[in-house]
Design brief:
mainly beta
């Protein structure tokens, strides 16, 4: 994509004009406020010469003066001051062409000058990470701090009439601050077509166009939920919402006359890094006494085994009647 020229109000600099019968030799001269800029950072160009017409060739794709015979073009300067921003890193030869008409416009007098512009791209930031396709969705990770990202999945998703399992072998997408930023996963170049094993923490490295590197880690956790749950001898089944992945509901009907005020549910969880609470009190299967006279909200906390500060929460509301 070509960069865009942004005209700025003239500073009162008038380009010299010539008489019809005599033309003066034009002078090509200009200054730039910086010869080293970042991608998309504006360069301010000031024409300081003397000419009827001024054209600047920024030197990037399609606007390279050395390729003028290959239909590269420049930018006409109608004012003595404008800005230009490069969208691609590199070193560019910016050329100013100043011209005056002679012989009643039948011939042309010209002069050129140039300067070099170094455009750098040192971006290493990851803006977003996602996994796709996950049943029907693209699921995005959350940035926990400068280095750690967290991707959270339900173990199953409600889709049409079923509850397909969500595996941790997934394709990934990386959205970086610059298109020039390279991404490495586990030391190897990232591939959009490859399925990555997210059951282990992934080491991710970004490398800018300038060669600067930055390290990240991608942690992947399942939202906690009951593997099994039974109360008063009746088994419960999680009811899933097709759009809300980390909040569940369980409706259970027990025998008539059952005292709901002091029951000891029996349950299992999926992994050792999952814990379940009512409020802030951790629950123990077959031991914790629960009052089910009104809906009870269980809160699950799943913690990264590599970094205990990284965790994800989910809930299950149990209704017993």
């Amino acid at each position: 994509m070509k960069a865009i020229i942004i005209p700025i109000a003239a500073l009162g600099l008038a380009l010299a004009s010539c008489s019809d019968d005599k033309a003066t030799q034009p002078t090509a001269a200009f200054t730039v406020d910086a010869n080293r800029v970042e991608v998309n950072q504006s360069v301010t160009v000031r024409f300081t010469g003397n000419a009827d017409n001024v054209v600047v060739f920024p030197g990037d794709q399609g606007q390279d003066y050395d390729l003028i015979k290959e239909n590269n073009t420049g930018l006409v300067v109608n004012k003595g001051l404008f800005t230009y921003a490069y969208s691609t890193p590199g070193t560019y030869k910016m050329v100013c062409v100043a011209t005056n008409h002679a012989d009643e416009g039948m011939s042309l007098l010209s002069d050129t000058c140039s300067t070099w512009i170094r455009v750098i791209d040192d971006a290493t930031e990851i803006e977003k990470i996602s996994a796709y396709p996950v049943v029907r969705d693209e699921i995005f990770a959350t940035q926990c701090n400068d280095a750690d990202w967290l991707m959270a999945f339900p173990r199953k998703m409600r889709y049409q009439s079923g509850n397909p399992a969500v595996t941790l072998s997934r394709k990934l997408k990386f959205y970086t601050a610059s298109q020039s930023t390279a991404v490495l996963v586990g030391g190897e170049p990232y591939s959009a077509s490859k399925s990555y094993d997210l059951s282990a923490v992934l080491d991710i490295t970004t490398r800018s166009h300038e060669g600067t590197e930055r390290a990240y880690k991608l942690h992947t956790l399942y939202y906690g939920e009951f593997k099994t749950f039974a109360v008063a001898g009746v088994k419960g089944t999680i009811e899933r919402d097709p759009f809300d992945y980390n909040n569940y509901v369980m409706n259970i009907t027990v025998a008539e006359g059952t005292d709901l005020s002091a029951l000891k549910p029996e349950f299992t969880l999926f992994a050792d890094n999952e814990k379940v609470y009512i409020g802030n009190e951790e629950q123990t299967s077959g031991v914790s006494v629960v009052d089910f006279t009104k809906p009870v909200t269980y809160r699950f906390v799943t913690t990264s085994t590599e970094n205990p500060q990284i965790s994800v929460e989910s809930t299950c509301v149990v209704n017993i009647k």
